Amino acid sequence: METLLMIGLLAALGALAVTIAFMDDLLVVTMLSGIFSFTCCAIFVLFDAPDVAFTEACVGAGVSTVLTLAAIRLTGRREKRVGRRASAVGLIVSTICGLALVYGTLELPRFGDPLAPANQHVAPHYLNESAAEIGIPNVITSVLGSYRGYDTMGETVVVFTAALGVLMLLGGSQARPLRRGDAPARADRDVILRSIATLFVPMTLFLAPYVQFHGAYSPGGGFQAGAIFGGAMILYGLVFGIDRLNKLVPERVLKVIAALGVLTYGGTGLVTLALGHQFLDYDALSPRPSGQQIGLTAIEFGVFMTVTCVMILLFQRFASRRSEP
Amino acid sequence: MSDLVGLFPYWAVIILMMTGLYIVIAQGNLVKKLIGLGIFQVSVFVLYIAIGVVDGATPPILSPGFNSYSNPLPSVLILTAIVVGVATLAVGLALAVRIRESFGTIEEEDLLPLTVPELPPEPEARP
User: Fold this and answer.
1) In this predicted structure, what is the pLDDT of residue A289?
2) Is A132 exposed, middle or buried (0-12, 13-18, 19+ CB in 10 A)?
3) What is the mean pLDDT of residues A289-313?
4) Rounded to whole angstroms, how far apart are CA atoms B88 and B81?
5) What pLDDT, on the 0 to 100 scale, is given for residue B120?
6) Closest CA–CA distance from residue A251 to any residue of chain B (Å)
7) Using CA atoms, how far apart are residues A300 and A222, in angstroms rounded to an integer?
8) Of A115, A221, A283, B38, whose CB neighbour count within 10 A is largest?
9) Taking every pair of C-alpha atoms in chain A, what is the biggest distance, in angstroms?
10) Are the Cβ atoms of B11 and A48 closer than 8 angstroms?
11) What is the pTM (predicted TM-score) of this model?
12) What is the CATH number of domain B2-54+70-113?
């Protein structure tokens, strides 16, 4: 049964990808890629990765789709038809690459093999020892925050840096001011949309702290909670207008909190250094395992602050920019 | 037969990956290229997660009564990669928006003649 489900979902993904390749209406393409992301979520759940499914649902299907739509509004909806030559070159290159990769898979361990090298290296250590070393049931959170804390810090900094890049590229000063005759950037005359949003935004906002603080026991953590909180604010902005969102959470506040998040993460590392241990070695804070839990809570909160604010900032910058006449 | 089922997820991933690659190579619209890159990226995510699956296991959240868990490491790597992915997508889209504002188009074939400067004329050979 599970095998059939897997084959069906993967086939659906393939069909969606091919349809995306041959559509030239970018609005349709964007919506299809949202569906593509949701199908992926189902596959991730099937593949025992609920944390990843969570993240893909809010980020891949939610935030990416909204950002792409906002960009299409500024760059135009139609794309030019592909030339014969470009199409042929693309087909030849991707077919040859694909066949080479298929040849490479023949030697790979089969799907689900417990003895595959990938499942033998550090994974057994994480699964067998993390209960004693970190003391929380969700192994993914332990690995994310503690065993591989350096990686996660790097990823948080990358997210922050990307936000800086967008802020510089879409600088506020270049956007032309609102003129008379511009379409009002709000949908708040639509009663159905407004009622649903009034119901959903607070519920989603409440879900975020739950996902954040229960992340040690169930799927969740700073990245997911940040994306959920940011997603709820984006929904607010979509329905009630970007101007109200800008007023509710001004950009200068978001910038400061995003930076504070990175600072919290790095600062935790510096504190452990100051206490005479290695960078991000939470045992410095308190004996095992409670020190680990204090450290994890601190860095997850830092991640939450950065991810939330970056998501909202990205949306604000794209949505506030007015298209050229 | 078991070989076929055992390799099917990888082959499906390869098809997705190559569709993404095709879009990036063949399509001229910059936003469409970014969407193609997104498909490529998601296929890599599925590949990682598929490698970590263990038959008959549960998600790696320790609880009494279970003793077989899937590999937690791919989940960790991919869940952070997804968030980084949307941040980099935003940078790409911002670049596309700026290119459109500066040149009036985001189609590659229209952009290339605008952005590649003409080569300066060859200096005349000295006698």
Assistant:
1) 77
2) exposed
3) 92
4) 10
5) 66
6) 17
7) 5
8) A221
9) 67
10) no
11) 0.89
12) 1.10.287.3510
